[in-house]
Amino acid sequence: MTLIVQCPACAEQEDESKVFPLGCSATLLSYAPYYDEQGVAHYHDPNATTSSYRCSKGHVWNVKSYKECPACGWRKADDLVIAPKW
Ligand SMILES: [Zn+2]
Ligand SMILES: [Zn+2]
């Protein structure tokens, strides 16, 4: 699967732009996997990786993404955070 990253502000205006990553950071909450009735480990990781992007038109935004549980596919929905312009 190809990861598509597009500027949400430009997409809204049906405009096009190039997107440049600004870096990412991760939270470090402690958590432990739990084991279900079949003894299968579930990794419901509350830690988010926040990636920052800037588009060629100057919009800046962050995307928080979460890891998927390998046992059941559970995953917190990604949060899209539009940051104010720098
Ligand atoms: Zn943009
Ligand atoms: Zn799970």
Q: How does this structure look, described?
A:
With 86 residues, the chain is mainly beta. The protein has one domain. 6% of the residues lie in helices and 36% in strands. The protein has a four-stranded antiparallel β-sheet with strand order 1-4-5-6, with no helix packed on it. A two-stranded antiparallel ribbon has the order 2-3. A hairpin with a 4-residue loop joins strand 4 (48-55) and strand 5 (60-66). The longest helix has 5 residues, at 8-12. The model has no long low-confidence stretch (mean pLDDT 90). Bound molecules: zinc ion (2 copies). One zinc ion (ZN) is lined by residues 42, 44, 69, 71-72, 74. One zinc ion (ZN) binds next to helix 1.
Essential attributes:
mainly beta, single chain, 6 strands, two-stranded antiparallel ribbon, four-stranded antiparallel sheet, 36% strand, 86 residues, binds zinc ion
Task: Report the sheet-strand fraction.
Answer: 35-45%
> Which ions, cofactors or small ligands are bound in this entry?
zinc ion
> Helix- and strand-based class?
mainly beta
Report the end-to-end length measured between terminal Cα atoms: 32 Å
**Would you report the number of β strands?**
6
> The biggest beta sheet, please?
4 strands, antiparallel
Rg (CA only): 16 Å
What portion of residues is helical? under 10%
Q: Uncertain spans, ≥5 residues at pLDDT below 50?
A: none
Give the overall average pLDDT.
Answer: 90
Concise account of the structure shown:
6% of the residues lie in helices and 36% in strands. It has 86 residues and is mainly beta.
